[in-house]
C-alpha cells in the first residue's frame, strides 16, 4: 500500500511552500513534513483523510495466488529506490497486506459511509 502526501508542500513546487502547511490530515506526521502537526495533535479528534493505493484480488482467489501477489508487493516495497522514488512523488510507502489491509479497507468504508450519512449525501 502507498499513502499519498502533499508533495507540493514538501518540495515548494506548488502554490505554497512547506512553511504554509498548517495541519496534516494523515493519522501520523509525514516524514516529508515533520514540523506539521496532524489534526489529532491539534485537538481535532477523529479526522483523518489519507489516500492509499493498493492491490486487490477478486473474492475466491486461490490462496497460492494471493500469497504470490503479497510476495511481489513486498519485493516492490523493499526494492532499492522504491522508497526514494515514492518520497520524491510525495508518498510514504508502507507494505500492508492480508488481514491488516482488509481491516483498513473496512475502517475506511465505515468512516466514509458515516460521513456520507451525516452529510445526507445521495448518489445521483
Q: Which whole number gives the mean pLDDT?
A: 79
What is the domain tally? 1
Helix percent reads: 25-40%
Quote the beta fraction: 5-15%
Cα separation of the termini? 31 Å
Structural class: mainly alpha
Number of strands: 3
**Strand order, sheet with most strands:** 2-1-3
InterPro entries: BUG (IPR005064), Bug_dom1 (IPR042100)
Protein name: Tripartite tricarboxylate transporter substrate binding protein
Pfam family, one: TctC
Family: Belongs to the UPF0065 (bug) family.
Any overview of this molecule?
By secondary structure, the protein is mainly alpha-helical. The chain has one domain (2-118). The protein contains four helices and three strands. The chain has helices spanning 7-11, 63-78, 82-88, 98-118, and strands spanning 2-4, 52-53, 91-93. Strands 2-1-3 form a three-stranded antiparallel sheet. The longest helix has 21 residues, at 98-118. Belongs to the UPF0065 (bug) family. It comes from Ramlibacter aurantiacus. Pfam families: TctC (PF03401). This is Tripartite tricarboxylate transporter substrate binding protein.
Amino acid at each position: 500500500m502507498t499513502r499519498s502526501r502533499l508533495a507540493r508542500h514538501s518540495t515548494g513546487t506548488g502554490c505554497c511552500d512547506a512553511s504554509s502547511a498548517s495541519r496534516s490530515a494523515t493519522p501520523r506526521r509525514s516524514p516529508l513534513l515533520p514540523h506539521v502537526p496532524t489534526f489529532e495533535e491539534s485537538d481535532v479528534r477523529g479526522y483523518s483523510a489519507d489516500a492509499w493505493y493498493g492491490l486487490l484480488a477478486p473474492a475466491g482467489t486461490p490462496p497460492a495466488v494471493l500469497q504470490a501477489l503479497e510476495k511481489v508487493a513486498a519485493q516492490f516495497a523493499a526494492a532499492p529506490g522504491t522508497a526514494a522514488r515514492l518520497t520524491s512523488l510525495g508518498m510514504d510507502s508502507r507494505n500492508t497486506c492480508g488481514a491488516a489491509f482488509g481491516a483498513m479497507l473496512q475502517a475506511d468504508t465505515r468512516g466514509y459511509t458515516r460521513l456520507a450519512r451525516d452529510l445526507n449525501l445521495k448518489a445521483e
